[in-house]
Amino acid sequence: MQFREVTILIVAETLLSLVLFTAVIGILVFLVRKRIRKYKPADLAVFDRLQRWVSPANNRAMLFFSFLGSHKFLIPANLLLIFFFLFSLHQSWFSIRVITIALSSLVLMFLLKYLFQRKRPLSPLLKAARGLSFPSGHAIISVTFYGLLLHISWNLLETGLLRWAIAVLLITIILFIGYSRIYLRVHYASDVISGFIIGLLWLLISLWVLDNLEQYAKTIV
Q1: Which of 8, 82, 102, 146 has the fewest CB atoms within 10 Å, i.e. is most exposed?
Q2: What's the CA gap between 148 and 173, in Å, rounded?
Q3: Confidence band (pLDDT; 50, 70, 90) for 29?
Q4: Do the beta carbons of residue 181 and residue 133 sit within 8 Å?
């Protein structure tokens, strides 16, 4: 089987998984959409609790972590990873994973935002963010991107201590990205927590599909 045919198969399988996953989420949407659209007392209580930690230094730190989960950082980061795995390590399947998971995560994020139509918090800490609130795009994309990095580094590295150090670092970045969105009051806590869960589920589904496709492709190429 040619590389082009394998790529088409991967895209088709991933899109099918995305459709099935979205269908399940869609059913849940119609069950809980009205409840999620409303502002929850618990979400507002989280804002009140975080108010004591607001300071210029913390503002700068949270803006930095928020940037690490933004498209301005992640688009170049994804492109660098693709070229690094493809031309430096000659690991085409890692490049395919990066492309597939990045694009499918974006599609899933925008689709869910459109379905839920939840507006953002009314009083952002520094400046307002564009778009809809639920689920948090930063949370979904950070889990899929940094989670994929964790998966790849865990498989490439042989040193156990280095593996765990990178894993702790990447998980910390993910958590602080989510926390920064709540701190900056551009997302409710429920947006971020749901984004983490959705992102993790989609990452696991995508990796399972792509791992099986890789094994299948190796048997027929």
Answers
A1: 8
A2: 13
A3: low
A4: no
Non-local CB neighbours of 202 within 8 Å, separated by 6+ positions: 21, 101, 104, 105, 108, 140, 144
Q: Which two three-digit tokens encode residue 121?
A: 């918090």
Q: Can you read off the two tokens belonging to residue 208? A: 């399972």
Task: Determine the Cα–Cα distance for residues 176 and 73; give it in Å rounded to an integer.
Answer: 15
**How far is residue 12's CA from residue 109's CA, in Å, rounded to a whole number?**
19
Q: What is the pLDDT of residues 44-79, one digit of tens each?
A: 888 888 888 899 999 999 999 999 999 899 999 988
Question: Is 11 a residue whose pLDDT tops 90?
Answer: no
Largest CA distance in the chain: 60
51-to-12, 39, 180, 209 alpha-carbon distances in Å: 47, 18, 13, 43
Mean pLDDT, range 201-209, rounded to an integer: 86
Q: Hey, how many other C-beta atoms are within 10 angstroms of the C-beta on 214? A: 17
Instruction: Calculate the alpha carbon distances from 10 to 3, 17, 40, 104, 110 in Å.
Output: 10, 11, 40, 12, 21
